[in-house]
Structure formats: structure tokens, C-alpha cells
């Protein structure tokens, strides 16, 4: 499997925050999801990928090259969908398209208008009159209309209605079917990633907790529920995170933990469970 993106030992210091020794690959033909709580460093990492923020040390290669070597060539191959609007608010969809399309060598008018029709976007409507969901649809149409090889998205499903969110995820699956493209998208809506992602990277406090195949990650942990008395028999080193009530508990444990009580309930955790309990436990998950 070819890596479209290779991040090695990335360091970036900001006021009261830093990205610390990030190592991450994004593979061609797959969808890689980036999860983490607010302020964990997801957007900062994406900005470094896009060369919108200069790194202090380490290396980022996209398509085998760094931005220093070939930033224009790299950006021609990237479709970017950001969680905020950076278009001209007083201009229409059509007018914004005319401006943006000039920057892309492989701009495809037919594809763009096909996406407008699919997303039900009126081309003469001004950006400031669009809902947040419609703005995200327009961003997606722009990102896909110059045939990018890598699509980078920051919270792309935020503000979308449930019907279009489902359609949006189907579009992402279609994009990677030819196995030549890759998608990297960050979100706090982990259920979306559970439906479409092949790989998951989890960042917390500026550090990469893990990055691996989704199913491998889900198999590393077990969600356990039971009476508080059973906690006495659980080795605390196996506990990733814990939530206690007056009579019982629920916790995320390393899969290597052996269930010793018949009355304990154990379930396969969701990505949300893993993120929640890792952050709550304030300790990094490990590969077991």
C-alpha cells in the first residue's frame, strides 16, 4: 500500500499548545479518520499538512515531496473542505466558482455543475444567504471538481442534515473506489467514521495516541460494566478510563484483561467510547 502522506517526527509549538512528535501515514485508496476532543490539535495538524502553518521540526511529505520542494504541484492534487467559510460572502456561487477555478489546472466545469445539481445548490445564490450545510456542500463541490488525488476535510459533516450526511458518506466511499485517491478527514462525529473509515488516528493534547486500521483498534479494547465490588479484582494498569456511579461502574479496559466475574457485562466499544474514556482517564492508550 502506497503512502500518499508521510508525517515524521512533526513538532509545532504554539502558545500554550504543541504538536508533539507526530508520526502518521495516509494511504492511497483508503479513508483515514482523525478523531480527538476539541483543542486536541486536529485543525493544527491539518493546517500543517496544507502548509498554512509552518512546522518547527520534522518532515511532511505529500506525494513523495515536501511543500518546500513543490508546494504548487502538491496543492493542485489536494481538495480541501474546511469547517469555516472562506469564500466571498457577497458574491454568488457562480461568481465564487469563477474565481476559484482559475487556480486549478484540471478544473472540470461539467463535474462542478453536476455536483451543484446533486446538492441542489442554486448557482446565483449569494454565499451569505446559504445555510451552513449548503456552504459545506459548496465547499465539497469545489474540492471535488478539479479531480484531486488527496481530499483533506476538517469537520465536513458539521451542520449537514441527516439525509445529506448519509449521501455525503456515500460520496466519500465512491471516491476511493478506484484505489488511486485518499481521504483524510477530522471529525468529532465518530459514528460517521465508523461507517466509512478504514484507518483511524486519534490525537489528544497534541500527541498521537494511536493510528491503525479501524477494526484493529476496536479489537484492542473492551467496554466493561458491573457492580463496584468487581473493581477490586481489576488490575488498575488495565483500566484506560472509568466512570463510577453509586452502585456500579462502566470502564474501558485493555482487551488483554481477562473477565473474572460472570455478572460483568462486556461489550465491543465504539470509537466514541475509546475517545471518551481515554481523555477521561487522562492516559494514553497502548497497543496490546
From TrEMBL:
Instruction: List the CDD domains hit by this protein, alphabetically.
Output: ABC_DR_subfamily_A (cd03230)
Name of one Pfam family that matches: ABC_tran
- Keyword Transport in the entry? The reply is yes
- What GO molecular function annotations does the UniProt record carry, in alphabetical order? ATP binding; ATP hydrolysis activity
Q: Gene3D superfamilies annotated for this entry?
A: P-loop containing nucleotide triphosphate hydrolases
InterPro entries attached to this UniProt entry? AAA+_ATPase, ABC_transporter-like_ATP-bd, ABC_transporter-like_CS, ABC_Transporter_VariousFunc, P-loop_NTPase
Q: Which residue numbers delimit the ABC transporter domain?
A: 2-230
Task: Give UniProt keywords alphabetically.
Answer: ATP-binding, Nucleotide-binding, Transport
Name listed for the protein in its UniProt record: Sodium ABC transporter ATP-binding protein
Amino acid at each position: 500500500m502506497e503512502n500518499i502522506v508521510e508525517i515524521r517526527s512533526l513538532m509545532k509549538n504554539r502558545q500554550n499548545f504543541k504538536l508533539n512528535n507526530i508520526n502518521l501515514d495516509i494511504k492511497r485508496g483508503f479513508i483515514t479518520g482523525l478523531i480527538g476532543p476539541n483543542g486536541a490539535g486536529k485543525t493544527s495538524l491539518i493546517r500543517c499538512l496544507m502548509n498554512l502553518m509552518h512546522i518547527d521540526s520534522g518532515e511532511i511529505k505529500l506525494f513523495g515531496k515536501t511543500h518546500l520542494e513543490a508546494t504548487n504541484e502538491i496543492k493542485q492534487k489536494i481538495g480541501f473542505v474546511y469547517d469555516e467559510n472562506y469564500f466571498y460572502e457577497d458574491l454568488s456561487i457562480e461568481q465564487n466558482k469563477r474565481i476559484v477555478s482559475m487556480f486549478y489546472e484540471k478544473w472540470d466545469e461539467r463535474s462542478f455543475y453536476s455536483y451543484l445539481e446533486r446538492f441542489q445548490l442554486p448557482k446565483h445564490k449569494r454565499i451569505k444567504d446559504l445555510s451552513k450545510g449548503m456552504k459545506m456542500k459548496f465547499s465539497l463541490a469545489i474540492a471535488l471538481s478539479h479531480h484531486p488525488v488527496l481530499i483533506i476535510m476538517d469537520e465536513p459533516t458539521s451542520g449537514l442534515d441527516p439525509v445529506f450526511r448519509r449521501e455525503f458518506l456515500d460520496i466519500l466511499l465512491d471516491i476511493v473506489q478506484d484505489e488511486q485517491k485518499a481521504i483524510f478527514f477530522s471529525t468529532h462525529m465518530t459514528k460517521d467514521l465508523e461507517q466509512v473509515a478504514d484507518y483511524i488516528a486519534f490525537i489528544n493534547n497534541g500527541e498521537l495516541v494511536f493510528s491503525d486500521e479501524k477494526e484493529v483498534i476496536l479489537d484492542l479494547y473492551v467496554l466493561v460494566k458491573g457492580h463496584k465490588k468487581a473493581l477490586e479484582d481489576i488490575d488498575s494498569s488495565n483500566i484506560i478510563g472509568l466512570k463510577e456511579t453509586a452502585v456500579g461502574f462502566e470502564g474501558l479496559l485493555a482487551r488483554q484483561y481477562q473477565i473474572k466475574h460472570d455478572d460483568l457485562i462486556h461489550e465491543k466499544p465504539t470509537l466514541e467510547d475509546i475517545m471518551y474514556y481515554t481523555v477521561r482517564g487522562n492516559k494514553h492508550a497502548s497497543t496490546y
